[in-house]
Design a protein that fits this description.
Elements: H1 2-25, H2 35-68
Helix pairs in contact: 1-2
Length: 69
């Protein structure tokens, strides 16, 4: 059953990455902030989402290998 915790963390990480991506993809420029600030925040959010998705996939693959053993 050690694979269950690994799979749960992997699913949580993938879900978090997808949630962050949806939040960042819907950002709109605000008149009181410069356009560059919105672009940098969108870039940072996408980078965080990609890393979270990558970590989640690694944990899911590790859980798959642990389950087959």
């Amino acid at each position: 059953m050690t694979w269950a915790a690994t799979a749960a963390f992997g699913l949580l990480s993938v879900g978090t990455g997808a949630f962050i991506y949806v939040l960042v993809a819907n950002l709109e420029s605000q008149p009181e902030y410069p356009e560059l600030m919105t672009d940098l925040l969108r870039l940072l959010g996408i980078a965080i989402a990609v890393v979270a998705l990558g970590i989640g996939l690694v944990f899911l693959v590790a859980a798959g290998y642990a389950y087959t053993w």
